[in-house]
Amino acid sequence: MSDIVESKPDIAVSKEALLKAEQYIEEEEGAANHLEGWLGVFLSTVAVVMSLFHMFAAYAIVPTQTLRPVHVGFVLFLSFLLFPVSKRFRHRIMWWDWLVSLLSIAIVVYLILGGDDFTDRNTRPDPWDIFFGVALILLVLEGMRRTIGWILPVISICFLLYAFLGAYLPSPWTHKGYEIGRVVGFMYMSLEGIYGVAVDVSSSLIILFTIFGAFLQFSGAGKFYIDFSFSAMGGKPAGAGRTVVLSSFLLGGPSGSGVATTVTLGTVAWPMLSKVGYERNAAGGLLAAGGLGAIISPPVMGAAAFIIAEFLKISYLDVLLMAVIPTTLFYLALFLMVEIDVRKYGMGQTIFKKVDTVWNLTRHYWFHFLSLISIIVFMMWGFSPVLSVFWATVVSFLTSFLRRDTAMISYDLFQGKGSISHHFFQSPLIQALRAGSVGMLGVGATCAGAGIIVGVVTLTGLGLKFSGIVIDYAGGSLVLTAIYTALVVWVIGLAVPVTASYIICAVITAPALIKLGVPDFAAHMFIFYYAVLSEVSPPTALSPFAASAITGGDPYKTTMQCWKYTIPAFLVPFVFVLDPSGQALLLMGSTDALAIANPWEIARVTLTAAAGIFALAVGFQGWLLVRATAVERTFLIAAGFALVYPGPVSNLAGAALIIIALASHWRRGWKHRPLQGERANSG
């Protein structure tokens, strides 16, 4: 007889575990001050004004030369007042915080008042230009340090030193070297350095999507997505794991944050996973893997996805289109792993009970799905990404009033109950506007800092030099170049966040792949997916570390479990760089190319990749009907790698290996069928 597990089991996440998990969120988003009184009101007001300004800029016309500096000014001003110079000064604002925050405003005012004359003299800056330019560079470095830590500022300083000292370096790294005036002019007085592509995307798209995610969260959409997943996936042996996978997709789609999704989901799902038989590290690995999906899942994806669109000068809708099949394959891998877990850990006798029906939840809160898909609908109607997210936010706000419990301004305000100040100024609307700005300060500072790196690469030609070195080491081999590129992206990702990792590698490693014939969109998506691995790679494996804090598991064992769940899907990017046919996984890179593509070829490549993921999932888990033998696991893993490498010979070899391994496994599985309910003691 099966055990029925209620959706709210006895096990609870302790306050200590939640506090520890929140520390990992702070590592990603910075350890902010918590201020009350007039200071708290003042900072909340500035954050709300920042959100309103950017929403105004989305609808009205604000010149680029104004929008980008004002955006950086807002980011730095709030960063210096919300994030202390060190933890011992936390929860208070010191005099030097006011000094640097006001200086960040002065820098923007000086730039805007300078007008066209200011930008025209970027090659011959005057002393005041140099003063404010040097101040901006130093403030951006300090803003990054306060919000995301030391590593990216140090990397940025190394790039600046490369710009200054290029004449003293050995070949092939040498260049003529630049004086401080030229560097300042490029970084501060043009739209190529700090105010370059990354800040352009941050000021026009990233902040709007962050505001949109905050509107969904404060209108109750996050809770609905979890409840919906629980109801849709309950009542089955694999219900607990499936719930994590589905809810991570629904939660992560609008948030785009791996750590936040992991913590939000983990506090609810860990008790359920524990009850059905997941051990601490495996549960943490699954939660972190689900959180990782937030960064690659449409419609928001991670901040880097917006920068891809800007780098390639393509529509954000095309980026979403390219992400559809890889995201589907990622979640296919997770679902396969979860199904195998049921057999491997003997969960077949434990069923998760539904609390409410899918119909009831959908009938009452259907409009949360409308908010989620409205972005795509607006883009398909021809709206720009900026206007699409603007109107999607408006849709989220308006539809929240369909129910009293989701209204972003209390019904009581319109009925004359209570004070206006309480119902409006403490409403979910104001909280969402505040959270939208504060939640992107780390990303905004990262984009400004990445502008320094991109500026140096552009000024010195480092990208072409580095790509030439990589190709030489690879001997002109595309396979080796792809492997080297993946390793470079992964190593850089060990130290910096996903957005910074992508930006750095896009300018220094993408040219190597493009030189060898890989289309630019495939090269950039390849780099993006391997940059995402930084979320689950120590020492910055914040998602698994946060999950382990919730489950009480070992952080590094949890990280390895997360790798087990995600690694089959992360071999897929090799498919779309090693052979032109693999570009079918990216739906040919654009809607125009897709319109003339062969649908059967897209289906064939997708099914081949899915078969490879299946083989790798079973091979890494070591279980299907029963425990797999060492030979079966070897055959399946080899088959997975063969299917990932495009080409008829490798695909036929992979298919043959799968057939041989599965035939052997099924023969043993039916022979030992009564034993499949036993718990696995090892992988």
Task: Pick out its properties.
single chain, 683 residues, mainly alpha, 2 domains, two-stranded parallel sheet, 72% helix, disordered N terminus
**Percentage of residues in DSSP E strands:** under 5%
In order across it, which strands form the biggest sheet?
A: 1-2
Q: State the separation between the terminal residues, measured CA to CA.
A: 27 Å
Structural class: mainly alpha
Helix content: over 70%
Low-confidence spans: pLDDT under 50, at least 5 residues?
A: 1-11, 674-683
- Write down the Rg: 26 Å
Give me the number of helical elements: 33
Count all strands and give the number: 2
Domain count, please report it.
Answer: 2
Average pLDDT works out at: 85
Largest sheet: 2 strands, parallel
Using the alpha-carbon principal axes, give the shape. globular
